[in-house]
Specification:
The structure holds two protein chains of two kinds. Chain A has 13 helices and eleven strands. In chain A, the strands form two sheets. In chain A, strands 5-4-6-7-1-8-11-10-9 form a nine-stranded mixed sheet, with helices on both faces. In chain A, a hairpin with a 3-residue loop joins strand 10 and strand 11. Chain A is globular. By secondary structure, chain B is α/β, with parallel strands linked by helices. Helix content of chain B is 33%, strand content 19%. The longest helix of chain B has 17 residues. Classes of the chains: A alpha/beta, B alpha/beta. At the A-B interface, helix 5, helix 6, strand 5, helix 7 and helix 8 of A face helix 4, helix 5, strand 5, helix 6 and helix 7 of B.
């Protein structure tokens, strides 16, 4: 059943909590971290809202002196990944080459990139601070994780619009089945950046005073530890969940356009269900892709009703933490905990057995995954 | 890695500073032509150095004026190379199942040159045109290629800095080998930008003169830009349709150095492990390797660490085989370097000709392998490696084999 692997640990640093259990508890309590932009954040934007990790400090996990070396995204990623490994009880040092990392991101490096460029463009190239340049790369967070946690296995960062984190999950699944690794930290990381917000605002991507349709930006770092089931069981771990289905489909269009392509939405969802070998009736909860892009949301809503024969029980993770390339990581963390037997905030009779995760983005990028309760091994 | 499905290269395309298609690129590589010259894309006078391997005219005549306006330089270069590669493959994409056709590219700078203009205007209190930032994200080119060819299958942009497009090729291989796709358009397109130009200059890693990989007097890299695109295809179906098989992609290694954000492990162990992983995945031994297309950036640290890595992984074989860096001619094309060096490596195993490392004059005791100095040569190359190392310790090594093997 766990054709893609089991999830043995989760980590989250996000607008709704600084640990995965806190995030999931508040999510299912119906809380949202979306808030109005402060005057400083607003600064000419027509966007009105954001979800940020307000008050975040990297302590106690990363000492203050050391934390200065890392940009915000790297701090999120290091802490989220360390949480996932700790929960999984995974000892990296036993075989560091057998564990890798794949993170999805749309903004990693944005802080360093814009600061370096700002000085270069306003003052001079010679004045641009060399300290920032290495952190301008999108792979900085995953790489800092590998350096800090001493992972020697596969290490990639993927940028493919809103579903980047589910892309990272697929990469991780393929890495496990191809025997490149026995365990992969999969997830996503994004940091809010005022200049990126400006760009998104000007191209019409953000919801606000002038636009009803558009996203509210979020930020955060999310990770799950994905292992081959036999390896996880072999080392005595108790999986939280299993990833049983993943599907990806494309709908060719301009890179920055959302295409409300109902056929592709349906193909993606049905693909994930077929991969998991379940009928729509086997899904108890949906984390929709819904992100405020109205025609996309309408298309998804319509296809979910059509596939399930009624509107399925659903919880919108993005309404709570905002939209970002890493959001799929948050959905994965929440899905893993929602089906687990551990620290589950959902009352026992109401717990889902299987969760469908949708993650659709601009540029015709569509992914979906099925996360379900881990099998209880025969005693 | 146990593989049921093998992966072959059935098409290649290239847009580089020394050739606007793969054939011209290849003949100039073999002739030892250098594409590193004064920068014209932006004013380089305020920078420490003023040269780069810049692409001349982009063969994008197949695009309408309106399409070109919407696209970044990286888009136009990437599409031109992709069109060449698909044409060579002989694939009739209109009759392919679009769900089995994937696009996996490496990316980084993408539309950065334009977003720098947007940012410049904004910072100087002027009105900035929003269309300038539309292509900022490195995944734009991947979506463009999928749009152009109607691909609806697996799609990803790998953003691991200078190993991006090597990792993209590796992932494309895994996607086909594991059954997620039958054909994947892979490689990458990366262009000059002020950020990367200024960045490497700020780190004092750029040679004001054309770079000299492995030379004792090397002073740093020369930045370049390029698009390199390869069509990867499941072998049985490629053979069935009588496709031109240029090379086989045997496998790849992808690892973390977990050493330092910018410095390579000088012992060679980190890079050596990546080579070892690539050999294991490909089912070949160190003694089978006939050629290494080096990362060879010409920074003092990289070239000695890479030499150590090759020796660490290949042992005695390291001294018996040629190792060359085409960066001496096309510069360091950053996120497209793995792709363009992949194209060169495919041509090496196809033609049994080895491109040189030019500007090589002085032997360095820390770089004591055969770097094919200054002149191309013939040689038996059945199995070739191409190394890519990146900021963050993201290392990737790909393995190509000659089609007849």
């Amino acid at each position: 059943m766990s054709s893609h692997g089991v999830i043995t640990g989760t980590g989250a640093v996000c607008p709704l909590g600084r640990t995965a259990p806190e995030f999931v508890r508040r999510l299912f309590a119906g809380e949202s971290a979306v808030r109005p932009l402060t005057a400083e954040e607003k600064d000419g934007l027509q966007a009105t809202h954001v979800a940020r990790c307000d008050g975040f400090t990297p302590q106690p996990e990363i000492p203050a002196m050391k934390a200065r070396r890392f940009d915000r995204g790297s701090q999120f990623a290091i802490i989220a990944c360390a949480q996932a490994l700790a929960e999984a009880g995974y000892d990296v040092s036993k075989s560091p080459s057998e564990i890798g990392i794949a993170l999805g991101t749309g903004s990693a490096g944005a802080g360093a990139l814009t600061e370096f460029l700002r000085v270069l463009l306003v003052e001079s190239p010679e004045a641009a601070p060399p300290f920032h340049f290495p952190n301008t790369v999108a792979n900085a967070p995953a790489s800092q994780v590998s350096i800090e946690l001493k992972l020697l296995g596969p290490n990639v960062t993927i940028t493919q619009k809103d579903p980047s984190a589910l892309n990272a999950l697929l990469f991780s699944s393929i890495a496990l089945s191809s025997r490149r690794a026995r365990a992969m930290l999969a997830g996503g990381v994004d940091e809010w950046n005022r200049y990126y917000a400006l760009g998104f605002d000007r191209v019409g991507a953000l919801r606000g005073e002038k636009r009803q349709s558009g996203i509210v930006q979020g930020e955060g770092g999310f990770a799950v530890l994905l292992e081959r089931e036999e390896d996880a069981r072999g080392r005595g771990a108790v999986p939280l969940a299993a990833v049983t289905g993943i599907a990806m489909a494309g709908s060719p269009c301009e890179p920055y356009r959302f295409t409300a392509d109902r056929e592709t939405v349906e193909k993606t969802i049905r693909g994930a269900l077929a991969d998991a070998g379940v009928e729509p009736s086997g899904i108890d909860l949906v984390f929709p892709s819904r992100n405020g892009v109205l025609d996309m949301d309408a298309a998804e809503d319509e296809m979910l009703r059509s596939i399930f024969g009624k509107r399925p029980r659903s919880v919108s993770v993005k309404d709570a933490i905002g939209e970002m390339a890493a959001a799929g990581g948050g959905q994965l963390v929440a899905a893993s905990r929602a089906v687990s037997r551990k620290d589950n905030p959902i009352p026992e009779g109401e717990r889902p057995r299987r969760v469908l995760v949708d993650s659709f983005g601009a540029g015709g990028n569509f992914l979906a995954a099925v996360v379900e309760a881990a099998r209880v091994p025969a005693a | 890695m146990i593989k049921d499905r093998r992966v072959v290269v059935t098409g290649i395309g290239a847009v580089t500073s020394i050739g606007a298609d793969a054939a011209e690129f290849w003949s100039n590589l073999l002739a030892g032509k250098c594409g590193i010259r004064p920068v014209s894309l932006f004013d380089a006078v305020p920078y420490r150095t003023q040269t780069a391997a810049e692409v001349g005219e982009i063969p994008d005549g197949f695009l309408s004026a309106a399409e070109k306006r919407r696209m970044s330089r990286a888009d136009r270069m990437g599409l031109a190379a992709a069109r060449e590669a698909v044409e060579q493959s002989g694939l009739d994409l209109s009759s392919e199942d679009p769900a089995r056709l994937g696009v996996i590219l490496g990316g980084g700078t993408s539309g950065l040159l334009d977003s720098e203009d947007f940012f410049f205007h904004h910072l100087h209190g002027k009105k900035a045109r929003p269309s300038k930032v539309l292509n900022h994200m490195p995944d734009a080119i991947t979506d463009r290629v999928a749009q152009h060819f109607g691909a609806e299958g697996i799609k990803s942009t790998i953003t691991t800095a200078c190993s991006s497009s090597a990792n993209a090729m590796g992932y494309a291989h895994d996607a086909i080998a594991s059954g997620w796709a039958d054909v994947v358009i892979t490689g990458g397109s990366d262009v000059l930008a002020r950020l990367t130009y200024g960045g490497f200059n700020s780190l004092r890693s750029v040679d004001p003169e054309p770079c000299r990989p492995f030379d004792r007097e090397r002073k740093g890299l020369s930045i370049g830009e390029a698009a390199g695109i390869l069509v990867f295809e499941e072998r049985e179906r490629a053979l069935r349709r009588g496709a031109p098989v240029l090379a086989e992609f045997l496998g790849y290694g992808v690892t973390s150095d977990a050493y330092h954000m910018t410095a390579p492990d000088p012992s060679g162990a980190a890079g050596g492990r990546t080579i070892q992983a690539a050999l294991e995945c490909s089912g070949v031994n160190a003694s089978d390797v006939d050629y290494v297309n080096a990362h060879g950036t010409a920074t003092p640290q990289n070239d000695s660490a890479e030499t150590a890595a090759i020796k660490w992984a290949l042992g005695d074989r390291a001294r018996e085989i040629p190792v060359s860096s085409i960066k001496s001619m096309v510069g360091h094309c950053l996120c497209a370097s793995g792709a363009i060096e992949g194209v060169a490596t495919v041509l090496t195993v196809r033609d049994q000709l080895i491109p040189p490392t030019i500007h090589y004059e002085n032997a360095d005791p820390a770089c004591d392998l055969d770097y094919v100095p200054n002149a191309a040569r013939e040689g038996r190359v059945e199995i070739a490696l191409s190394n890519s190392f990146a900021f963050g310790g993201n290392s990737s090594v790909v393995v190509f084999a000659s089609p007849g093997r």
